[in-house]
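Deviation from plan, reported transparently: NDP complex.
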Amino acid sequence: MSYVSEVLSHVVAKNPGEAEFHQAAKEVLESLESVVDANPQYRKNAVLERLVEPDRQIMFRVPWIDDNGVAHVNRGFRVQFNNAIGPYKGGLRLHPSVTLGTIKFLGFEQIFKNSLTGLPIGGGKGGSDFDPKGKSDREVFEFCRSFMSELYKYVGADVDVPAGDIGTGAREIGFMYGTYKKLTGLYEGVLTGKGLTYGGSLARKEATGYGLVYLTQEMLEAHKDTLKGKTVAVSGAGNVAIYAAEKATALGAKVVTMSDSTGWIYDKDGVDLAAVKEIKEVKRGRLSDYKNYRPKSEYSTSGHVWQVKCDIALPCATQNELNIDDARALVKNKVVAVAEGANMPTTPDATEFLIKSGVLFAPGKAANAGGVATSALEMSQNSQRLSWTFEEVDAKLHGIMVNIYRNASAAAEKYGHKDNLVMGANIAGFVKVADAMLAQGIQ
Ligand code: NDP
Ligand code: 2IT
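Because the crystal trials were delayed, the predicted structure below was used instead.
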């Protein structure tokens, strides 16, 4: 049995019921065969066994009281996966579907993504099965305060720095920051994605979506193509989707779809982003409302955005949202590129099919790394007690995304997988972390 297969069978046996974590571990480890074969010291020093076992997993009770005086209990998580190259860093997901397996898949992915950014950040992730949807501001505050009243013991500006993810935006980060400050007395960069008046970075809100489009543009240019004039299908209507659509539009593409968890819109004239922002960011409403802004658009609750003819597909909602049938529909419609704004949105068989069909494919680890990279820039600004301009941060973000594309492409080519960015991103992300682990001894 190969080293990789041996470690993967341990992952499955030791972590029952964590299907998403198994999926993420398999995808990464299987692409490392050639690297671990070429470097026997990784096996000798149990690098893969140590990588798949988090440094620690924290699980806790989160009790809170709703507006009717009724008490509820949710489960809180923080998985501190690996800090070989920097403090643990990664978002907090608030969604009813969250389990330990979800957080472990996200934390594991985060190790390699953060390494790819070239910045000194380790991998971690957290969250809760709390559903912020439909809750009042006071209820969300109660939850966030209760969540942080336990989490504060384990995080810190040089220890572990959480941020946003699905269901966690500026409002939730603000409530958690206030609680951390109150409990510790420390005014420090313990969270990123903060509001601009209390240590947040300009361009962090836009960073994941903008970064996704910068990397897509670089990938297209490397293949003598361009975003200009392309038709783009976006899924999701949250932080990543909105700013991906904004940048794609600014660079001359036409975004024709967006979706939320109840349905999706098709606007053949190009999505009106001011309307989407008002519906999703201001009203916290549903996309079904979009028809009131653009009567000629279409709204559907069946099927998916991937049925629409497009040149570029940007899945920006959630994991496993683009399956083999969707991939077949995209290829039939002659899609040129698929770039993942979400984490693990494409199922393994769909990814394989897209790559075999000659579609340019940018995996989330590379393509959505702009968010966490800009979080690291927020950490730098907090340490310096300075704030940089939007243009400065955006220019750094652009440079980071171009470098990620080039490093992942070079790693793919070096190990015999030319143009396979899935392989390249995993290998480039892994080597830096693995070498830091070797240098620091068996810990
Ligand atoms: P948001 O909560 O802002 O938006 C998520 C969007 O996806 C919403 O439109 C939501 O619909 C939809 N969605 C979420 N879950 C589901 C589901 N189970 N089925 C269908 N639709 C769903 O989250 P983000 O935009 O921040 O995150 C989107 C993805 O990007 C996630 O995979 C996240 O891990 C990843 N990511 C986020 C980064 C960030 O900086 N925020 C950085 C890198 C990756 P509805 O409005 O109905 O809830
Ligand atoms: O998946 C991700 O990279 C994020 N949710 C952002 C993490 C961060 O620390 O900014």
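The first strand starts at residue 56 and ends at 65. We consider this an acceptable substitute for the interim report.
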